[in-house]
Amino acid sequence: MIRFKIDENRCIQCGECANDCPAKIITMENYPKITNEEGCYRCQHCLAICPTGAVSILGRNPDESTSLAGNLPDPACLETLIKGRRSVRRYTGRDLPGTLIDELLQIAWHAPTGVNNQSVLFTVVREGKVMDKLRKEVMALLAEKKKAGGFPEDFVGQYLGAAVKGWQEENLDIIFRGAPHLIITSAPKSAPCPVQDIHIALTTFQLMAHARGVGTVWDGMFMMALAVCPELITRLGIPEDHVLGYAMVFGEPAVEYHRTVQRGPAQVNVVC
Ligand SMILES: Cc1cc2nc3c(=O)[nH]c(=O)nc-3n(C[C@H](O)[C@H](O)[C@H](O)COP(=O)(O)O)c2cc1C
Fold it and tell me: What would the pLDDT profile of 141-160 be if each residue is shown by its tens digit?
């Protein structure tokens, strides 16, 4: 049931909801009407495009949406956020408020997904004490694998070997950078675009996190640990039928950056 409802007192019969519907299932019969409920992508374009807030779908009240006029970020500010985001590798170790983590997750949930499938799963460590336990477990497991000669001989083995050595000899956490929180994306293999969806969701989470003063770093080291110790995937509660996305640690930064970096020109291949 998609519960498509038109407030006839508000509808100006402009037909924009019908014109914009990607599934082309809205017709104008005086007022908009859905012809084929099963064909709906549940994208809410009809609700978003209505200039008078006359369209409700999926039980959503258009008055509870944020109005776009006057509320969009200034492009220069967004540019600074994109260019000023840095990988944070030093954390205070204090837990973030749960409400802030929830806010970031709910916003990241707005990232686009192929065919609007919305099946990305966020696996999250919300508490520093849980993270500390996981950190110890992961390092113990890696140390065990290393001792048993279970590391590959390529760069993965070298990186993980160095991480184990750093942990054992200097209490250095190269895998999680001492962060109090972790997020991992995954999506069902059966979803239309799982590989793309999981990375788009995490990128969206990251940008919003930085906008809220939360530090993050993409965690390739932990991805290597998961490749070498796949039993950890089950331990984290990630369903077996999921494509593993990527891991990212996050938390309150113990570092402040004062300016953007200056990257060289982008690589561009112009098609003629
Ligand atoms: C896919 C991916 C994996 C990464 N893995 C790690 C990692 O395991 N540990 C780490 O400290 N940084 C990691 N990084 C951060 C990169 O080293 C960093 O993005 C790069 O040096 C540029 O710095 P910046 O993010 O501050 O611009 C990773 C970044 C990406 C995109």
Answer: 999 999 999 999 999 999 99
Calculate how far, in angstroms, residue 217's C-alpha sits from the geometric centre of ligand 1: 6
Kindly report the pTM of this predicted structure.
0.96
**Ligand 1 centroid to 248 CA: how many Å?**
10
Instruction: State whether the beta carbon of 87 lies less than 6 angstroms from ligand 1.
Output: yes
Q: Under a CB-based contact definition with an 8 Å cutoff, are residues 248 and 219 in contact?
A: yes
Which of the following CATH numbers is that of domain 5-64: 3.30.70.20, 3.60.20.10, 3.40.1160.10, 3.20.20.70?
A: 3.30.70.20
89 Cα: distance to centroid of ligand 1 (angstroms): 9
Pick 76-251's CATH classification: 3.50.50.60, 3.40.109.10, 3.20.20.80, 3.40.50.880. Answer: 3.40.109.10
